[in-house]
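hey
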């Protein structure tokens, strides 16, 4: 048997060395690729934005394939990277997830050669990771937005809940005070057979006034519940607005005088408005009642004038005024300015009713106020069409909530 020559052995050895080097290189490359894929997957799970995901895919894909550049086009319009002026080779794969096609990634110009099937397999794997990352991102951002919405709703619910609690405690207080007074004076009259008639009359007068207060509060509560169920009735007819104003001024003059305030009405222009007189009277009673309630010196002035197709009515007072940051909320149900809640009676329902009624008349209400100087509430109501114009039918309507 002939012995292999040393030269042949060395030749085989060096061929094996080359093979081993190539294998090692291949294993190393594979290791690098797996490692890169893993890193891409890891960083993609970190809730990156679509732009960040795209940048990462392009950077790592070009590095791993030794390409000059890449471009990502997402179906929602996001594009990243550039297409080079000269394209010698390119590799394009779709970016997809469980819900379908999201876009595509293209890698350009492999240095030293052309893209291989293995390169394509690798880019597909990266694009799959990108699809998952984009979906994660969409889901997480959806969750964050939903969470924010829920937090906001929760805050609003807490505020409404607080307002309702305040309302219940206010209303209980408002009901209890006149009731206690009615009960007290009635019991005193009953217990004293010899009470002089004029004192009896005085006490009955107080009972009568306190019952009126109770009626106002209970009617406000009933109206608010009608308003909330959309069932407030309106009996609409063309009427002189100033007639309603004069009635309310007459009714509330005594209340103003008892506080040493003046109450006057300046009629600049007469105005006919299609309105439910008793509801508009309710608006005026609320506005003038508030003006008297929140004013300690000076007085309350009403002015009526015309402005284009509108009748305007301003209720001005020289009272406490409303802090600027509270003004946007005073027409909300149950809202009362905190620092006066405990010193003035009220339920926080009056202005909510006022706005609903004015809205139903297709009018508007605005307020200007200066703390410590006074407030002006201005109501604008559309004028009735002139006689001979479009006929105004007498209509019974309901409020839209
Ligand atoms: P209420 O008078 O029962 O508290 P309203 O809905 O009528 O409820 O008014 C809401 C809040 O607006 C009042 O609590 C008060 O703080 C403020 N407000 C209304 N009118 C005036 C006014 N003319 N001057 C000062 N504050 C007012």
């Amino acid at each position: 048997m002939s012995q292999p020559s040393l030269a042949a052995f060395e030749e085989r050895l060096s061929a094996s060395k080359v093979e081993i080097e190539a294998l090692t290189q291949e294993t190393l490359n594979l290791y690098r690729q797996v490692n890169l894929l893993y890193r891409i997957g890891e960083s993609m799970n970190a809730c990156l934005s679509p732009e960040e995901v795209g940048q990462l895919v392009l950077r790592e894909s070009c590095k791993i394939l030794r390409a000059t550049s890449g471009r990502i086009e997402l179906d929602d319009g996001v594009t990243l990277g550039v297409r080079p002026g000269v394209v010698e080779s390119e590799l394009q794969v779709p970016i997809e997830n469980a819900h379908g096609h999201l876009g595509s990634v293209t890698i350009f110009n492999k240095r030293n050669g052309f893209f291989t099937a293995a390169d394509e397999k690798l880019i597909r794997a990266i694009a799959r990771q990108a699809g998952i990352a984009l979906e994660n991102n969409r889901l997480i951002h959806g969750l964050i937005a939903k969470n924010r919405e829920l937090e906001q709703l929760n805050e609003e619910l807490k505020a409404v809940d607080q307002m309702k609690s305040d309302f219940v405690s206010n209303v209980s207080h408002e009901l209890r005070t006149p009731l206690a007074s009615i009960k007290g004076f009635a019991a005193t009259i009953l217990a004293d057979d010899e009470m002089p008639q004029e004192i009896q009359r005085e006490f009955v007068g107080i009972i009568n006034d306190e019952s009126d207060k109770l009626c106002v509060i209970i009617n406000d509560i009933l109206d608010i519940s009608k308003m909330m169920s959309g069932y407030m009735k309106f009996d609409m007819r063309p009427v002189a607005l100033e007639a309603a104003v004069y009635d309310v001024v007459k009714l509330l003059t005594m209340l103003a005088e008892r506080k040493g305030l003046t109450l006057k009405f300046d009629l600049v222009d007469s105005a006919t408005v299609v309105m439910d007189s008793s509801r508009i009277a309710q608006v005026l009673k609320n506005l003038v009642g508030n003006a008297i309630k929140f004013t300690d010196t000076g007085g309350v002035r009403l002015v009526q004038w015309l402005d284009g197709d509108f009748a305007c009515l301003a209720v001005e007072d020289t009272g406490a005024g409303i802090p600027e940051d509270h003004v946007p909320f005073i027409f909300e149900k149950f809202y009362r300015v905190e620092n006066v809640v405990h010193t003035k009676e009220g339920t926080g329902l009056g202005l909510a009713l006022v706005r609903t009624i004015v809205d139903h008349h297709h009018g508007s209400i605005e307020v200007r106020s200066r703390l410590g100087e006074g407030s002006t509430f201005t109501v604008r109501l559309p004028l009735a069409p002139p006689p001979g114009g479009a006929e105004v039918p007498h209509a019974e309507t309901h409020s839209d909530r």
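The pocket of adenosine-5'-diphosphate is lined by residues 286, 290-291, 294, 317, 319-322, 330, 335-337, 340, 346-352, 375 (CB under 6 Å). The CA atoms of residues 85 and 134 lie 29 Å apart.
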